[in-house]
Structure to design on (232 residues):
């Protein structure tokens, strides 16, 4: 059965052309012109992934993201024509799984859709890697998608969780930015180290006692980063 993708965008031409291209690529596509209609549609016909424009009339994309996340387990990719990185960064921090800036190349969007859907499927299928990891006072449970530091729960976005999990699978090993991009974001992101920088900063703010003097996620200058377990 083809994956169902819901497109929420107020640009009628964009909805028609992108829906057509998604269906040509083997997906089932539905669309809505605003967040309110998109949420109603999602309740009636739950999608496997949502493509959500930030600049929507009425309820904007950032508010809609929180509503979609409370309603669905499906991943969300932001579509944005705004050049201000603040919107994109805020969207990811609130829980979006990715973002694509308009105008975008269709092949790039399709590649990102595949990466996000694959990651979503991996989270829903229990396997040996889903066993909880205990690293000092930090516990990561991939199956439940939870993190605790010193017994206290820590709220992470989907991408932050995936990044921390990648570190935790190789404690003490230096991992380059490009390796992290390939493992967590997908090969098409390699060469965009700023994406890693931003998410490393967010992770440190959530799991480090002092983000400005990190002891868990340590920078190895000129090489990459490594994760060091800390005892309570």
């Amino acid at each position: 059965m083809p994956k169902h993708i819901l497109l929420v965008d107020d640009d009628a031409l964009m909805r028609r052309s992108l829906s057509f291209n998604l269906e040509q690529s083997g997906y089932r596509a539905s669309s809505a012109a605003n967040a309110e209609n998109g949420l109603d549609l999602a309740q009636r016909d739950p999608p496997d992934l949502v493509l959500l424009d930030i600049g929507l009339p009425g309820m904007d994309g950032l508010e809609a993201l929180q509503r979609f996340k409370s309603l669905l387990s499906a991943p969300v990719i932001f579509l944005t024509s705004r050049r201000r990185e603040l919107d994109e960064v805020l969207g990811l921090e609130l829980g979006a799984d990715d973002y694509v800036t308009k105008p975008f190349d269709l092949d790039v969007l399709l590649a990102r859709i595949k990466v996000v859907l694959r990651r979503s499927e991996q989270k829903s299928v229990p396997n040996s890697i889903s066993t909880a990891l205990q690293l000092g006072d930090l516990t990561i449970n991939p199956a439940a998608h939870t993190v605790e530091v010193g017994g206290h729960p820590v709220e992470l976005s989907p991408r932050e969780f995936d990044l921390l999990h990648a570190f935790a699978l190789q404690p003490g090993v230096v991992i380059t930015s490009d390796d992290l991009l390939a493992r967590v974001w997908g090969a098409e992101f390699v060469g965009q180290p700023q994406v890693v920088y931003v998410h490393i900063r967010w992770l440190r703010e959530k799991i480090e006692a002092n983000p400005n003097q990190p002891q868990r996620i340590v920078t190895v200058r000129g090489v990459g980063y490594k994760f060091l377990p800390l005892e309570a």
